[in-house]
Protein: Ribosomal protein L11 methyltransferase
Amino acid sequence: MSTLFELALICPQEQVETVSDALMELGGLSVTVEDADADSPDEQALFGEPGMPAPRAGWQRSIVKTLFEQEAAATETLTTLLAQPFAQDVHVQGLVPVDEQDWVRLTQSQFAPVPITDSFWIVPSWHEAPAQARTVMRLDPGLAFGTGTHPTTRMCLRWLARQGDLAGRRVLDYGCGSGILAIAAGLLGARDLTGVDIDPAAVTATDYNAQTNGVVVRVGLPELAVGAYDMVLANILATPLKLLAPLLCAHLKPGAPLILAGLLERQVQELQATYAPWVELHVADQEEGWVLLAGVR
Ligand SMILES: C[S@@+](CC[C@H](N)C(=O)[O-])C[C@H]1O[C@@H](n2cnc3c(N)ncnc32)[C@H](O)[C@@H]1O
Structure:
């Protein structure tokens, strides 16, 4: 088992991004940022919309932790970093050896199986599937959004699970991220699946995740979506969803459901009004301030 070295620095919010970038450029293997005031009266929450970065790069005072292969590399990096003008208010918290395996285990332990229903679970590859799971999606955290832990994704998955057998359905997942919604539709019986995204990393991730789950998804950039579908799911954000309204509705067969997620309670009326010429959207689910809208063409 090899040993890594973890350098922990206390850093003010304004410098977190610059310091993190510098640490990676100077040879760090990975950088994580934690709240230096976590579990204290000074703790502050950071919230970002799905698929978007948090509004700030760090907390009021952050602990920036960087892993190095060698202790000498860590001390050399530290000396160079502290000599930079932007690092004036950066303080060293510690430099400690960590077992590589412990570190991997710690990271993995943060991603446990996620229940969508009693029998439908999202399970990371390093976990056994729970005994009650009848439908299991194998999915590891990666570069693209969608591991089943965000309320918007969970609500879409629950909605899919409520539809029963999707055999014979042609499904479009618009803004597919990790491909989680298209793959779920496939595991629930649909056989003609298309996933599209503007982010090439999402296209790669969807392709990989679909293969891992033995599901065939046609995946690519948005122009890959052609014709009419029996079901269209789009978990994006309110603003792109408004712009996409005519396009998404044009992909619906008569009588086909449209499922929209990624919007907050206060955005519901605006979205309903935008889609009104094509689809009467109703609130199908809500979780932690996020709303799922559904309607039939
Ligand atoms: C919140 S993630 C949803 C991922 C996944 N479908 C889920 O439910 O977890 C939104 C995805 O939409 C993609 N996206 C954003 N704007 C888009 C657009 N105009 N057209 C297609 N995809 C878009 C983003 O790149 C991102 O992967």
DSSP finds nine helices and 14 strands in the chain.
